[in-house]
Specification:
25% strand; 768 residues; Aldehyde Oxidoreductase, domain 4; binds pterin cytosine dinucleotide; seven-stranded mixed β-sheet; 3 domains; alpha+beta
């Protein structure tokens, strides 16, 4: 760990998470831990079919059971406004998003009826008494099949199953390919993944008839979006809805929402006048929470004789399911726009298509298109190296964007803010002793070992949009920071306290950080896309600066000094050149709220709110070298070294930043090595439990030798970039690069993930 950072006294310190005392002593409060008097329990009847017509639905036996409060079908529900959709891709075809399905179900797991009962057991009993007669219909899971003529139609509004299409065309790709000395093509399949947060989704809602106010506790990453969505869908006053994300046991992008259950629980709590709760089972979570990845893409590179990339073409097909999650466009969009990666590419012709399928929905999952883009370009670069008989590191070296070209605008129109990709790459090679690994590989191969070295480089855009921050120094001098972002494992309470402490000249312990509650907070966005530090942290820093400026003016009045002579000192303000003349922040706050004797033009109070919206995203970057060996008899891969350098600009808390790298590495490792949501051709789930869906356990995740580079971003006052998704982006291509390298003597030039022993053993056997 060599994370060195900027000069502030708290920013850059590896402080332990203040959140952890509560969480690791079992005192965390997740949705299911919350006690609300008189709460009722919601259980849903879900379609067992991927695509079926509902012939009949009989709820009479369920209604008669003791303890049942209500049984609701689509007809009982009445009109509910559409689930809001961010129109990230113009021209998106928007299908119905029925909260409860009527007529036709278009994915397994879609609810067709809801039971509310005194206890979860009574509700489950009633669910079993509901009789649904389905007529199964042909379904379609594969995006290429869905786009082909005669495929089953997944939604009513699209005959060809096309949901959205977006293209990036720049320069003259056709000519680049025509004139190229070399052309390579690779088709890659991203397996479907499930996010598998430790806490499955859950919602609790209470309607207060005396005030007409709705309170919703939900396991979400974006409480403000849930609030505005509920207001719009249910026709309620947004100011009378309070959404709280209590402790959230992981989100990984899939807890963006709103989901059907959040809407249903709110509707039913209001209608019944009783609190209603829904807690997902693990099986429901695997089936109904947005999946990630799943796309297929064909990419082509045109290169000159020296191995310089001249052109890039790609056709991306992203399955989406039969409904569109709010941020669904993000994945096909990121997949295309990020494709040039860290390389100089002048001519591009890229098209990304989102496809309706009769499958569980696909939405944002840690990386959301960034891992897919990095994977495709890295596979192409490896394939180019193989074709040109160049070392894969050398081919990358010839194409990395040089530092003097920053800010750099890519052929897909993205503007990279800062970075030194060649230096970062060379440092990674040196740290791994890349040349030594290659020499050892030659010697070991001669002895009959199957060994490989993989290389990957990546970019990670983050910090899209804006975020809010409020700083209030209370009358006693206590410091409150409220952020619009919404932590669910990232440690914002710790990180943000460090940022505010530096700005105000107080200790981090003196700063209380609140998040995840819309009540009393400025409008905010939430936590996803590794945006919180760059945006939320910056909003708080700017608000703290405003507060400090006002406090300094008030301090000048108390110190009877000129404002220009007053400076921040530990815990308060002092006068330049007069060491004894200081005033504590608490005294300034007391003065601010007393409201009398303030300098002319000053208002009482000591608080500020800022909405930080930078000119563009921040672009983190990184590189991997991995060395592996493969067991000839079983196909098992053993990682021998993983060397990784990441550049996320200014690091606020090196301990937490490394935690993010390790966590994202674990998830990327899961994709590379073992995870896969298996569906049958019609969209039926074949891996519906954690017995079938393999996620890495702690002892599966390898050790990585992690280092940092620091190219501060000019786009925010902290110089910070995002780090939360890095491992999911970088490790999959690095591992596939290493395994394919190991298997190249057996005629293997590409393998899709997951790199299971069976898949590798088959490739070995075929090539023997
Ligand atoms: N950090 C830092 N300096 C930086 C950047 C980050 O010190 N320059 C540290 C901070 O401690 C910050 C954390 O890293 O709190 C993550 O910061 P950032 O990269 O800004 O990402 P976000 O806080 O916006 O978190 C989102 C990101 C994403 S997109 C997913 S998905 C994800 C992830 O974070 N899901 C997580 N990390 C997760 N960690 C946990 N425990 N659980 C999840 O669901």
């Amino acid at each position: 760990m060599d994370a060195e950072t900027k000069s502030g006294s708290w920013v850059g310190k590896p402080m332990r998470r203040r959140e952890d005392r509560t969480l690791i002593t079992g005192r965390g409060r997740f949705v299911d831990d919350l006690g609300v008097a008189g709460v009722r329990h919601l259980v849903l009847v879900r379609s067992p079919h991927a695509h079926a017509r509902i012939r009949s639905l009989d709820t009479s036996a369920a209604r008669a059971l003791p303890g049942v409060v209500a049984v609701i079908t689509a007809a009982d529900l009445g009109p509910i406004g559409p689930i809001p959709l961010m129109r990230l891709v113009p021209g998106t075809v928007v299908p119905d998003y029925p909260v409860l399905a009527a007529g036709v179900v278009r994915a397994q797991g879609i609810p067709v009826a809801a039971v509310v009962a005194d206890s979860p057991y009574a509700a489950l009993d009633a669910v079993e008494r509901i009789v649904v007669d389905y007529e199964p219909l042909d379904g379609v899971a594969d995006p290429d099949t869905a786009l082909s003529a005669g495929a089953p139609q997944a939604v009513e509004v699209s005959r060809d199953n096309r949901a959205m299409a977006i293209a990036w065309r720049h320069g003259d790709a056709e000519r680049a390919f025509r004139d190229a000395a070399h052309r390579v093509t690779v088709t890659v399949q991203q397996q479907r993944l499930a996010g598998v947060p430790m806490e499955p989704r859950g919602v609790l809602a209470r309607w207060d008839p005396s005030t007409d106010e709705l309170t919703v506790w939900t396991s979400t990453q974006a409480p403000f979006r849930i609030r505005s969505s509920l207001a719009r869908m249910l026709g309620l006053d947004e100011a009378r809805i309070r959404v709280i994300a209590p402790d959230v046991g992981g989100g990984f992008g899939v807890k963006g929402g709103p989901y059907r259950e959040e809407v249903l629980v709110a509707v039913l709590a209001r209608r019944l006048g009783q609190p209603v709760k829904w807690i997902s089972t693990r099986a429901e979570d695997l089936l109904t929470t947005n999946h990630g990845r799943g796309g297929r893409a064909t990419g082509e590179l045109a290169l000159d004789a020296e191995g310089h990339i001249r052109g890039l073409r790609a056709r991306i097909r992203q399955p989406l399911g039969p409904t569109l999650a709010v941020t669904v466009g993000g994945t096909p969009l990121n997949y295309g726009r990020c494709l040039p990666g860290p390389y100089l590419v002048e001519h591009v012709d890229i098209e990304s298509v989102g496809v309706f399928t009769t499958t569980p929905p696909v939405g944002a999952y840690r990386g959301a298109g960034r891992p897919e883009a990095a994977y495709l370009i890295e596979r192409l670069v490896d394939e180019a190296a193989r074709t040109l008989k160049l070392d894969p590191a050398e081919l990358r070296r010839r194409n990395l964007i040089p530092p003097e070209r920053f800010p750099f605008k890519t052929a897909t129109g993205q503007v990279y803010d800062s970075g030194d990709y060649p230096a970062l790459f060379e440092r990674t090679l040196a740290a791994a002793d890349y040349a030594g690994l290659r020499r050892a590989q030659t010697a070991r191969r001669a002895r009959g070992e199957i060994v490989g070295v993989g290389v990957a480089a990546y970019v990670e855009p983050s910090g899209l949009g804006w975020e809010s921050g409020l700083i209030r120094v209370e009358a006693t001098g206590a410091v409150l920071a409220i952020t619009g972002s919404s932590a669910h494992g990232q440690g914002h309470e710790t990180t943000f306290a460090q940022i505010v402490a530096d700005e105000l000249g107080v200790a981090p312990e003196a700063v209380t950080v609140r998040h995840g509650d819309t009540h009393g907070a400025p409008q905010g966005i939430g936590t996803f896309g590794s945006r919180s530090t760059a945006l939320g942290g910056s909003a708080l820093a700017l608000a703290a600066r405003d507060v400090r400026e006002k406090a300094r003016r008030l301090a000048a009045s108390l110190l009877e000094a000129a404002v220009d002579d007053v400076v921040t000192v530990d815990g308060g303000f002092g006068v330049v050149g007069a060491p004894g003349r200081t005033v504590a922040l608490a005294r300034v706050a007391e003065f601010a709220y007393r409201g009398q004797g303030l300098p002319p033009g000053s208002e009482p109070g000591l608080e500020a709110t800022r909405f930080f919206s930078p000119e563009g995203e921040v672009w983190s970057a990184g590189a991997f070298v991995v060395a592996i060996r493969i067991d000839r008899d079983t196909g098992t891969v053993t990682p021998e070294r993983i060397v990784w350098i990441d550049d996320a600009g200014t690091i606020i808390n090196p301990l937490l930043a490394d935690g993010q790298l390790e966590g994202s590495l674990a998830q990327g490792w899961g994709q590379a090595m073992m995870e896969e949501v298996a569906l049958d051709p019609g969209g039926q789930m074949l891996s519906g439990t954690l017995m079938d869906y393999a996620i890495p356990r702690a002892d599966d995740v390898p050790h990585a030798e992690i280092g940092h580079a620091h190219s501060p971003s000019p786009r925010n006052p902290l110089g910070a970039k995002g780090i939360g998704e890095a491992g999911t982006i970088g490790i999959p291509p690095a591992m596939v690069s290493a395994v394919v390298d190991a298997l190249s003597p057996f005629g293997v030039s590409h393998l899709d993930m997951p790199l299971t022993p069976e898949r590798i053993w088959r490739a070995l056997s075929a090539g023997r």
